[in-house]
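Check this.
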Amino acid sequence: MFWTILLATATGMRTMTAIAGICWVAYLGYLPVQGTWAFWTAKLVSVIVFTLLALGEYVGDTLPSTPSRRDWPLVLARVGFGVLVGVIVATVLEQPKAGGVILGVIGALIGTYGGYRVRMWGARVVGRDLPVAIVESALAVFFTVTALMHVYLENVTYSHPSLLNMPR
């Protein structure tokens, strides 16, 4: 479940990226959410809604009028989605939901505050915020893809070990 922290860190950086990634992976059949409370993540409407929200967030984050991610309503939204992705991963891996909550909160706070500090430092070094914002968005996508790949592999390893037996 270590990868939950990375996934929630992506949520702290870009709120909708991790949940959009989860919806895509579940929709494509790589996360076994059927028969659980998280079944809705595998629906096409979830994929469309969260992908559009993530794309809108990428655009909105580059605008100078965007409020700081450190404003409490935005921090709470990031933490809330961090908890959501943590509990979804815990459900998929059949682990305690409390672990998903804790790791989701920790990762979201790392992404929110750590991402802010790194972005401000990068903007000072580069002299502009836009290139750093684009790199941060790409990094959130990278974290999401990496974490979901490992969650899938962990699920296959423990749920279906026979799939990993390769002929010699």
Observations:
- Residues 44 and 137 are 23 Å apart (CA to CA).
